Structures are given as structure tokens and as C-alpha cells.
Amino acid sequence: MPDLINKLKRGIRKPVPYIAARIVQELKAGVEKMLAPRRAARLDGRRLCVLLEAKSIDDLWDRLAVRPFPFVPRDVKAFDHLCPGERERIRRDSADAMDRRVNLLGSGPVYLDTPTDWSRDFVTGRRWPNAFFRTIDTLDLDRSSDVKVPWELSRLQWLVPLAQLYVLERDERHAAAVRGVVEDWIDGNPYAWSVNWTCTMEVALRILTFTWLFHALHDSAAFTEAGFRAKFLTAVYLHADFTERHIERSDINGNHFNAAAAGLAFAGLFFGRGRAPGRWLAQGLAELSREITPQNFPDGVNYEASIPYHRLNCELFALPAIYARACGITVAEVWRSRLAAMGRFVAAYMRDDGSSAVFGDADNARTLPMAQVQGEFADHRYLIALIGTFADDLELLRRFSGPVHEVYWLCGPAVVERLLDHVPPLRRSEHFPDGGFFVLARGGDHVVVDCGPVGLDGRGGHGHNDILSIEAALDGEVLIVDSGCYVYTASVEERNRFRSTAAHNTPQIDGEEINRFVTPTDLWHLRNDATPVVLDVQRDSLTISHTGFDRLAEPVRPVRRIVLSDGRLSIEDRFDGRGRHRISVPLHLAPSVLPSVCGERTYLLETPRRAFELVWSGAAGWACRVEGARLAPSYGTILRSKKIVWSYDGPMPAPLLVTIARVRT
Prior knowledge:
This protein has 3 domains: about 1-40, no CATH class; about 45-420, Chondroitin AC/alginate lyase (Glycosyltransferase); about 430-660, Beta-galactosidase, Chain A, domain 5 (Distorted Sandwich), CATH 2.70.98.70. The chain has 21 helices and 19 strands. The protein has helices spanning about 1-10, 15-40, 45-50, 55-65, 80, 85-100, 150-155, 160-170, 170-190, 200-215, 225-245, 255-270, 275-295, 305-325, 335-350, 380-390, 395-400, 405-410, 415-420, 455-460, 490-500, and strands at about 100, 110, 430, 435-440, 445-450, 470-475, 475-480, 510, 530-540, 540-545, 555-565, 570-575, 580-590, 595-600, 600-605, 610-620, 625-630, 640-650, 655-660. Strand 17 and strand 18 form a beta hairpin.
């Protein structure tokens, strides 16, 4: 009942056209429960050929096989030269996939049964019923289950290494293994009739997986049998049909809507002929073209206020545009230019070691992941090459560095050869004031600062209470990190803990949240309490504030000045206001950093390669201590670390200054 009341309250706040559209959508869903099984049953191979203007399934298969597809290189002779060591990684991951051994969302290695129970959260054992998708409760907040586990499993992206190895070595065992899993999934998830149809985004992302697997494996012996070909192509068609009927449209759209549009565009480009594919293509490209401007600020920052979701949205906007161009379709100039701006933000927030800041939610989401290595969730550098190539942005391409294996599969060997011949320029500070991110950089020093609005146009979404928060690396060593995002629906308490003010490197006053939670069980909304304020911006320094604590009986404005100079980072906080207040200022340390006291107001921060000195000073009454901390570097994974916490209880303004610099030896 409380969840129903909360849904009604949220609905009342929506615009009238949106409410009317949702009512119509719900009415259609009731009819769909009766019609969906009949529609799927009628779509056999013969009917599919009629719809797609083909003489036979084999004729259709052969026609689709020669259609352009830019993400499976056919000339792989130079693979080992361009991507040394990558074949062995693919072999290891292929062996796991061959054995149906998966490691998803922090689960650890898990062997799947054959046939697989695709509706089961194999971490907790919770199973969702075989039922019409609209009748299945996916939140299930009273249980410690996570619907993302069967969803992630059913994206089938863990099959990519098997298909990659087939492309490289033409071993039929790998193609046969993929076929076995795909048939198992289709048989275990009838159209619209399992938990894996409850989120249209998941359905749409499978379209991308299916089309990629087709172009990697279409000429294998395992994929020659006409019955399987009909089953496979029918499944792809039904996925597109479902996505069109159940696209997750809102008055404020985000990655779910983008995924559906991308899936429709892929399906239209994949099938080519036919009324429905033409409609899917036109709708998918039109929706993405309309959404890229409102969803991404002019400076390129995605408005979901999450760097990991910025990566996902980059892929969702880039891959359909690249696919369309390969098929002779040019997208609008605003699409190209805004995507290039998104790429420039990636180039700025990425660190030289391949790690990135983790502001906002992070659930490891990808569209077509060409590398499945644990730990590579944080490496977004392939996007610089992907977007730079599409946008023909030479400046962006010059900024690429790092591994090229994802670039090889997504852009082709010719692009990789060009990238290997250049040296990226030295880093410099860059500011993204529209999206509210500021990057201070000098050589090996790299600081990312968040002073942006609440995500999803003020609704929260995948954004956290992290205004004024920072991540920092000095001399190439990551020292200060964000806590990350542990889980979503698996634990209400953990979900709220990791998006709370206390979980971020920002001041908290009187134990209050920067932006209040709507309700404890509303896991994707925050009240839009805090307006970010940028007071001063210089090349390597900035002064920022926010209004989140203006609502207190005696308002307080935290003001933070951050300066990066010659390997030294200074963080100066002051609190403009009156009265007596309790203040907490944490800095969460990377797991590799060991802090120790070496003076009254001095800490030694040691990493395996470097040592840094942290010195602090402040008004009388400030105290400092080291505490244990929990970090989530990727979804479902917890690491133990330390945090340094300054606390104060007294009158304002209570200034505090923290300086970190390398110990010179």
C-alpha cells in the first residue's frame, strides 16, 4: 500500500498529457496480455519472410548477412599485432562462457544449469514467476533479491568472447556454444512472458547483442539449420516489435528511453526491407536525434549526473549513428557535434591509468562490450576513439591513449593503426559549467569536482548527493575516491546509504542531506533542494557552493575553494551562516592508500609507489580521525578502505583547510 500511495503521489506531480498517456498505456497493456501470445504464435518463418519481403528463410539470412555492419571486422590478420595479448584474454573468457560460467554484478564465478533458469537471481535464489510481464513485481523491496541479476544474464553479452574467438579462429565449437545458449534463452523466455520482458531497455539491448552475434556467426556451420535460423530471426523481430509497443517514454527521458530507441534503430538497420523495419529505423533515429540535445548539456555532460551513465549514453547515441552511416544514412549535424562534446568530457574525466571518477550511480551497464575483463568497467577511453572517429574530430582523436582492443572491434583495424602512431598531448584543466563538472589537471595530477544540478533535470535519477565532492589523483596516484554505488533494489538501506551526503567527499551539516530523499523506498528520486553555485573559476582553481542547507532554521552556505598547483592540492572550506551547527567533512581514500598519523595535524598517506603528506588547519574545535570506509568500485562489489573525517560542533564560520602534497625524497 505505501508503494501504491507513493506512485499515486508521483503521478499527480506529472503533467496532464503524461498522465493521460500512461492511462492509455495501461489500458493497452491489459489488451496486450491476451494478444501477445497469439501474435508470437502467428509469427513463424513463413510469415516472417512475407513481412520482410524474402523468398525463404535462407534467402533472408543470406540477404541480411551482406548488409553493412561496422562492428565485426572481417580482416583479422593483424589482430595479434595490433592487440597483443588480447587473444589470450578472449580465450579465457570464452572458456568460461563455454562452460556457462558467469561472473556478473559482483556475484563471483557461478556455473549455470543447462537448461538455465533465466528468471532466477542466482545470488539470492529468488525466482520470478513465468507470467505476463506486466503482472510481475520486479522491485520486491521486502526481499534481498536483485532483478538486475537475471536481466544482466539475459543481455547475453557474456557470449561476446565466444563469438569473437570464432571470428578470430573459426572454431565451430564456439559458434555451437552460442547457438545452444541462444536457443535456451528463446525457449525459456516466451514473448512478453517472463521477468526478462519487464523492462523494455533490457529487451532493446538484446537486439544489439543478437544483431552483433548474427554478423559474427552467420556463416558458421552451427547457424546453417533452417529451423534455428527462423527461430533466431523471429526472436529478433519480436524483440523489436515489443520495444516499439512498450518503449519507456516519459516527460523526462533518460538511458532507458535511449536504449529502446537504439534497439529500434538497430533492428531497422539490421532487417532493412519491410514496413515494420522502416518504421523502427525512422522512429529510433528520430527519437535519438531529438533527445541528444535536451539530455546532454552544450558542454557534453549528460544530465543524468552520473559518469558511468554518461558512458552508457555515449554508446547509446554513438553506435546507432555509426551503424546508420555504414548503411548510407547521415544523422543530423547536431547529433554529431553534441556527441563530440560528450567525447571531450570523457577525455577530460579519464585518468591516465584508465580509471575514472565514479560520481553518481554505476551498474556496469554497456551496450556492446568488446572486453569483459573485471576492472575494465572504469576504463572509458575507447569512447574517445569511437566518438572521435565518427565525428571526424582530429583533436579528440589525438587525446586517445590506452588499450585499443575495444577500438579494434568497434572501429576496425585501420583506426587502431592510426591511433598507435600518435602521442597524446599533456593534460590541462577543463571546465564543464553547464553540467557542473570541473577537471583540474597538470601532468599526473588530476582532480574532478562535482558542482552540478540534481540528475535527470532536478528529479534525482542516477545522481547522488555529491555537490562539492571531489576525486583526486596526484603524481599519477589515485588518493581520494567516491564511494560508488553498491546495489539498487537488493537493499533499500544500502541504496540510500551510497547515494547519501555522508558517502561523498563533501561537507554535511547537522546530519542533513544536501537534497532530501522523497521517501526511503523511492530509490531514484531526490528533492531538488540544492542549487549549485559557482563563485569563481580559474584555470587550476575554483570556488563553489550550494544552497542545500539554506532550508535549515539557521541557514548555512558551505563554500569550498579547490586549488591545484605544482603537485599540491588544497581544499579550503568555510561555512557562511549564523548559529551553532554540527559539521562533518570526509575524504574517502582509495583502497591502496594507507593513512597514518605523523603529527598533531599531519597524516602520511602511503601508496605502494608514493608517499604524500596531508596537513590540515582550522578554527578551534575541529577534530580529525581515521575511520573505516566501504567503497563500491563496481556494482555489487564492496572493498574496505579508510576515510579521514573532520568534525566540528560550534559557531560559524568555522574555516577548515586541508593540503595534500607528495613527500619528496
